[in-house]
Amino acid sequence: MKKKLRIAVFISGTGRTLKNIIERISAGKVSAEIVAVISSAANVVGLQYAEEESIPVEIIERSQCGSLKEFSEANFNVCRSYQADYVVLAGYLRFLEIPKDFENRVLNIHPSLIPAFCGKGYYGNIVHSKALEYGVRVSGCTVHFVDQDYDRGPIILQRTVEVYEDDTPDTLNDRVFAAECLAYPEALELIAEGRVSVKGRKVKIAPPTTSPRRDEIDF
Ligand code: GRF
Fold it and tell me: Which site among 5, 101, 122, 182 is 20 to 30 Å from 136 CA-CA?
């Protein structure tokens, strides 16, 4: 049975990922409702998309909270208060400690094929510059569950893109972002369909359930 996921989307930047998720939900491609947008600062550009859609916004700044634990709890308390089933990190740039009740319920998208070009300090065009410097022929994006370390949790899915010899970080970023616009909604929809399970660091995606035709039913 397909579920309508209640998701909280966390942002720190331009909000392109948030915008894409809003559009995919409106187009009926993702069975989800954004119950809240949580921003790491008040002046984050992406907040405009939440405002346009009248999605509740919460600002939680790292500097207003004491320890990492307190900061993380402040964020997850908001998620609990909105009864969010999943947290979707969308260009969110703060480190969070994942509490027990949100294990395998926090998703992130990273603009490379993890475990390449990831970890602390790898964000934005830095990722693409490093990929180009290395000379890789393919790059892509990774949707994964978030655990207690940067870009390390179980991988839900990856999409690849070609790298061209005349690519710049910007052109590669455009191609990878186009792949992200497909991968994140796809992962969310798989979760809504109840097809995603996690065992250790492996994610299993069950095949789609199709109802048998009437003449196939053994009465
Ligand atoms: C992308 O690089 C994505 O992989 C990463 O954040 C960037 C998008 O940020 N998670 P935004 O949605 O434009 O703010």
Answer: 182
Count: domains in the chain: 2
In this structure, the dihedral spanned by the alpha carbons of residues 193, 160, 98 and 62, taken in order and rounded to 10 degrees, is -120
3-state secondary structure of 128: helix
Q: What is the CATH number of the domain that holds 11?
A: 3.40.50.170
**Average pLDDT value for residue range 4-10:** 98
Of 77, 102, 127, which one is at a domain's C-terminal end?
102
The confidence score (pLDDT) of residue 35 equals 98
Q: Is the CB of 185 under 6 A from ligand 1?
A: no
Residue-number span of the structural domain to which 127 is assigned: 108-207
Can you tell me the mean pLDDT for 55-70? 97
Amino acid at 57: V
Tens of pLDDT, residue by residue over 182-214, are 999 999 999 999 999 999 999 999 999 876 666
Q: Is 110 in the pocket of ligand 1 (CB under 6 A)?
A: yes
Confidence class of residue 217 from pLDDT cuts 50, 70 and 90? Answer: low
Ranges assigned E (strand) in 61-195: 86-89, 106-110, 138-145, 155-162
Q: Whole-angstrom Cα distance, residue 95 to residue 183?
A: 22
Same domain (yes/no): 1, 97: yes
> Which atom, in ligand 1's list, is nearest to the CA of 111?
4
Same domain, 45 and 113: no
